[in-house]
Amino acid sequence: xxxxxxxxxxxxxxxxxxxxxxxxxxxxxxxxxxxxxxxxxxxxxxxxxxxxxxxxxxxxxxxxxxxxxxxxxxxxxxxxxxxxxxxxxxxxxxxxxxxxxxxxxxxxxxxxxxxxxxxxxxxxxxxxxxxxxxxxxxxxxxxxxxxxxxxxxxxxxxxxxxxxxxxxxxxxxxxxxxxxxxxxxxxxxxxxxxxxxxxxxxxxxxxxxxxxxxxxxxxxxxxxxxxxxxxxxxxxxxxxxxxxxxxxxxxxxxxxxxxxxxxxxxxxxxxxxxxxxxxxx
Length: 281
What we know:
Blueprint: H1 8-18, E1 28-29, H2 44-77, H3 93-122, E2 129-136, E3 139-144, E4 150-154, E5 180-183, E6 188-194, E7 199-203, E8 208-212, E9 218-222, E10 228-233, E11 246-252, H4 254-267, E12 269-270, H5 275-279
Parallel strand pairs: 1-10, 2-6, 5-11
Antiparallel strand pairs: 2-3, 3-4, 4-12, 6-9, 7-8, 10-11
Helix pairs in contact: 1-2, 2-3
């Protein structure tokens, strides 16, 4: 039976060839100049997606080379000069069964790990905490219902001077004025919705992507396997400033996370509370 582990070696080989380590040195999940293939995974879920993707790449390469070889053989062996008297055979039971059964078998081989992975991404395990992400034109707001139910907005940072003095890098079009802070190694449930149009909350390095739909609450789960900063963007066309709606997630230790929570409770308003009152505390 087809198993994702069989493809691990080939997946690792492709990763070494095509995935840049430029950003991973600082545990920053983002696209890099001249980068090929998928981004380096920073979660177990994304790692499985990369293995599956690379395995399919080997499979379709073998199929393509096989079809190319058949075409070359046909052109060379059965052209008018090499074969002036062509066969009049119109049916071959073995071939007809083979070219039907083999593609079906290949599709089954592809489907089994695909459905397993799809099920794993869809079914949320027991979560350590919940975060709610709300899409607006054109920024995100976040709520932490399990830790005081505070809320804050996250806007794109226009210039590095806006975060001067903060211990984090500035990445053009991806850095936000506030971050989504999560504890490393914990299962995080992310619920999302929208107040206006369709948005999509996406973090490629963590292997998560889900639409935020007005009037509907969708949810996904993520689990960062190391500390770092992971960038994403709204991945659903949502209007004029669609390209200026980034997401910045920071995974930290449990101790740092709890410290940030206490600070956030003082700094940010609770859900339903007047933001101006919170800022004046």
